[in-house]
Protein 1
Amino acid sequence: MNETRATTGETRIDKAQYGLAAVLAIVGIYTIIDARGLNVGFGDPIGPRVFPYVIGTAMLVLAVLLAVATARGDRPQAEAGEDIDLTTPPDWLTVGKLVAILVLNILLVNILGWPITGALLFAGCAWSLGSRTLVRDLLVGAVLAVASWYFFYVALGVPLPPGILDGIL
Amino acid sequence: MDTLNLLLDGFTSALTLENLLYAAIGVLLGTFVGVLPGIGPAMALALLLPVTYGLDATQALIMFAGIYYGGMYGGSTTSILLNTPGESASVMTAIEGNKMAKKGRAAQALATAAIGSFIAGTVGTLLVAFFTPSIATWAVEIGAPSYFAIMLLSMVLVSSVLGASRLRGYIGLAIGLTIGLIGLDASTAQARLTGGSLQLADGIDIVVVAVGVFAIGEALWTAAHLRRKPIDVIPVGRPFMGRDDWSRSWAPWLRGTALGFPFGALPAGGAETPTFLSYITERKLAGRRRGGSEFGEGAIEGVAGPEAANNASAAGMFVPLLALGLPVTATASILLAAMQKYGIVPGPTLMTDQPDLIWTLLASLLIGNTLLLVINLPLAPMWAKLLRIQRPQLYAGILFFACLGAYSVGQSSFDLLLLLLFGGLGFAIRRFGIPVLPLILGVILGPLMEVKMREALDLSNGEVSGLFNEPLAIFVYVLVVLVVVAPPLIARFRPPALLEQHDQEVS
């Protein structure tokens, strides 16, 4: 994905944009197909189909326009920000680690409970992003997770599932 | 003087000790989250929404008001003390503000930003209080066709006027509208785009979409491009202004307010245009000053004007939100979603159905604004320290609170899965330069728009003419056509040249 480099002045075609156009086209077509399966009730002049038809068609048109623009050398202006350095190629390893930790949290949160997975989530994300103070991060994470559990339980009246710590908290 | 009395009533219900406490907590939390790099006011609201779950509607609104203004102020602190602005509305503030900070005038820059925001926010909120009732009375008469047309205009404006690429604006809008379709159709209760999943039948909570696209998307995007070299934070003492600073600031504050409010109140959305207009106005006027202009070397006028414009437009946004139920910015969309959670449906009838609530909200906006000034001027050095938080811990914290917020909506891990998917979407739109605002607006306005469209067409028995049978609707359609076919005209009001110039200076 070297084409994300914003500093290169040459007008190379951003091939990933064809991928985006394809995905948008598929979404548009799916929206239209999905709407075809809806029933229009008797005496309902409009029904639930029209709006999805319009949106799906618009999506298809936009996908085609994007593909045409890409072929003509149109390139996206990737979003900048305080902590963002667009001159380096994207660091997929870090993103992969973060996604893995978020997925782990999704799988475990109902079993282990938020006080535990929240702590792991915080420490894991900090570690993925390059922090090397694992013990401190785990402690901070544990404090945040337990405190937020109690905050939701006591102050907001929202009991988050305690998981295996049920009865201890 | 009727308005004034009603507003005073609002104050009496907002000014209890308990409510003031909620306002203060809101301001502190909002500023805290807003100061953190990478978090704008909209994301701050979305992240902090769960904190208000246990409160009743009035207290929640008071806290939102605090969070809202706090988040705005936090954003300008970041853009003055760091070299790169995080959100489009702070771009103009950053140009002169950061130069002032580098010259050792950070305290004055923060002071003029805070006081300017206070004045603009107060004047803006008072204008909202005076305009909203009359617009709401008039809006009750507006029929479904005109509503549909106004929503269309708002969407087209937001997608095409803001941002660098119109095509990408419309793509963002279409993605948002598609997300808005997911769930049961409102009138026939048939599932749309759920793929047979029962968990999707209720539709997708806007909090999950917003937190996913804003917070998770931002964290993943930053992770992929994390600046490895330490950034340069300028230390700051307690903000203050000298006599000269005052005399140079007051006029830009007022001019900025005058520019910002109308742009916020119109369905054009966003503070980008008025902050830019304020910046060029002040630069031009400063050129005529004796002794020459300080612009380019840290002129206080260049901070005072755009900051006031920014906050005035943030207040102006409440006019369409409260009077028409029409959100025109990402922040307004989140506010609308938050109000819906409490069973409050903004729109012309709200003014007659729950007037107490509106006046309490407006009074709490004024209180929040005042607290902001009182609390934040002394605390500025502490906020500046926040900018030094280690980046791994900062983004780990953002991810932690994003997951907590989405999980607390329904205590379901399915929401966390959706959150991750929308995070992926947020990453993709940042990669492809697709603006977030039209997307969020599409999610929230899409379903409202469909309701109005079907109302209009049901009345006309399916004839397309049902969408055109009101003079106002036709007038608005003409505007829509103008916006679509006359983009060069609008391009003139857009700040691309200056933005590019600024980008070059930064890189």
Note: The mean pLDDT of chain A is 86.
Protein 2
Amino acid sequence: MDIIEVKNLTKKFGALVAVDDVSFSVAKGEIFAFLGPNGAGKSTTIKMLTTLLTPSSGKILLDGFNPSVSPDEVRHSFGIVFQDPSLDDELTAFENMEFHGVLYGLPKKIRREKIEQLLKFVELWDRKKQLVKRFSGGMKRRLEIARGFLHQPKVLFLDEPTLGLDPQTRNHMWAYLQDLNKNQGTTIFFTTHYMEEAERNAQKIAIIDYGKIIVSGTPKELKLQTNSTSLEEAFLALTGKVIREEEAGAMDRLRQRRKLWQGRR
Amino acid sequence: MWLRQLKRYMRSRSRIIGSLAQPLLFLVALGYGFGPVFQKAGEGNYISFLAPGIVGMTIIFTAVFSGIEIIWDRQFGFLKETLVAPVSRLNIMFGRTAGGATTATIQGIIVLFIAIAFGFRPFSWFLFPVLFLVMFLTAFLFTALGTTIASLLEDMQGFQLIMNFLVMPLFFLSGAIFPLQGLPKSVTTIARFDPLSYGVDSFRFLLTNTTHFGLAVDIIVLMAITLFFLALGSYFFSKIQI
């Protein structure tokens, strides 16, 4: 059985069909890239997989559990790194980890051991007592990845994890992820706009556009199919070159305002 | 969740001082400004009348604010982290509310001691434990109210509206700064529907042994409304989709 199975998944917001009859599956231990232009339905799909949104119709099985029937089992089996930072700036790195561990019901001894191990792994152990608001973007990302792994999830979701990071941090981060994937067998499900990142790291890719999956396969297969030399070319061949208009939702407005705020501080 | 709210509170010293400034200003300006008039009207010492009201004011402001902080969490993404955790929404909401209520109570206690420093004399020190409990209950009520509102709002724009149309009237019509006796009928009727009236009234009873509604009524009303908002808040909170 595959770790993620999605059948005929649909999500409607009023008249808008954000995700339209989507089916796919991800095998255990796979690194899976979920690609698509802005507003194609990537984030909506992730939100449905991670119990934040309920689907309009269709079926999801994550590690054998249905998010709408048994959300808590599903929540135990995945970790997630969101597109926007979701750390508490007013707490220290250690406290953020601790809070997560408590929420996921890890016993104190294991919790402390895991936190130390993971913080050392992402090279933040010597900064564990620093408030997160003093961290750089890259450090925050690393901390979030460490946090996502704390409860040893079977699947890790990453929604545009490398957005706004420099190549050094990006490579560093992928080295961690590859390592965790190999050693722990964690399935990794990620979205990105950097095609070379998907090409380099993903074993399997699905491309979604206008709420429908238009193609899926290994990076090689996609290139062969479209007769292109790079994944970026293949992507453009499949989704066209039109720039997508996306209405700014409340979230985007918040994002902008947050930037202003941070500038002021 | 509860601990997190407390830790955040301790960290934001500037906010503590900032939010103490307003009650202090009210206490000094109103207390000394209206003192003589109040005395001439035969109502006794205004400071001792006002102090419980200002404590109530501190609690309502801090409590509603910390409920509203959910919007902030939503903005900074932290809310999502808690929503994907395998903890029931009810627990999250409850923990937050308890945390917010605790900070509001602490704030209220600080203000109470400031009032004492300014010459306010409570009639009995032994009632303080009971007083703190009622303060916590009042704080719980308004944090739950704040959480309920915050679950319905998407961003901070609605916040100003709430301050002006909800918190301010709740405060001014609660009898926090003037006695409810001998007012026009309409004002007393409104005050009767204002939960803060009961909070302030119970503080006043426990601090100065004067009451408008009676302590039993105060506590029953406070508890009922708290339960109501808690239920309402949990319902809306469980409906949050991001």
Note: Chain A has one domain: 4-85+153-264.
